[in-house]
Amino acid sequence: xxxxxxxxxxxxxxxxxxxxxxxxxxxxxxxxxxxxxxxxxxxxxxxxxxxxxxxxxxxxxxxxxxxxxxxxxxxxxxxxxxxxxxxxxxxxxxxxxxxxxxxxxxxxxxxxxxxxxxxxxxxxxxxxxxxxxxxxxxxxxxxxxxxxxxxxxxxxxxxxxxxxxxxxxxxxxxxxxxxxxxxxxxxxxxxxxxxxxxxxxxxxxxxxxxxxxxxxxxxxxxxxxxxxxxxxxxxxxxxxxxxxxxxxxxxxxxxxxxxxxxxx
Length: 264
Prior knowledge:
Blueprint: E1 5-6, E2 16-27, E3 30-41, E4 45-49, H1 56-63, E5 73-81, E6 84-85, H2 93-99, E7 100-103, H3 114-124, H4 130-143, H5 147-150, H6 163-175, E8 181-185, H7 193-206, E9 211-215, H8 219-225, E10 228-233, E11 236-242, H9 243-248, H10 253-259
Parallel strand pairs: 1-11, 4-9, 4-10, 7-8, 8-9
Antiparallel strand pairs: 2-3, 2-5, 5-6, 10-11
Helix pairs in contact: 3-4, 3-6, 4-6, 6-7
């Protein structure tokens, strides 16, 4: 198999927020990631596509060290955040996960009010002033395009929201702690088309302020929302570059076969 093609190699270091070099990951004896080297540009939406089990979710969980929570995992290689190595014992995992937030496949609001869901993170990080919390909650809900829908019921249970609203609440909860990067693992897979369209529109808005990395099985979604796309297969990064180039002129035959539906 040929080496992965990296069309972001021409970007300057200051344009890259996340990078891996020779990243390998095992769950017990099973290797899930093989020699992954990827550079994620700032203030862009980057999509990772590929068949189920190819390593997409394992890769983004490396970016904020979430895989460390799995006892059987072993990781080798370099993970850089703003050009600083974070794959070390000395790394501040709380700070890493504050700067690199995550939204999961299934909306997972806390069993508390809408307000307290958003205020939870800032409270954990020491914000106690009520006016400051009010401001953070409103700003976060506005950035997640949810404020107008919930401003009159902030103290109602978050479980009363629709699935799409719950997912945007989870995004607001992530924004409340002022991240630089937002990782999204199949954020629309449990949503209807209308809710999916709102999340996709939101990604475009968020990328003006944050770096967004999304895992998706939906190639049409990747083509619609992302600026850069990486295609993964059997734990390897086969090709990575600008989305239009990947979809219209893939350099690797395997990428072309996947995009054209010859396997998947």
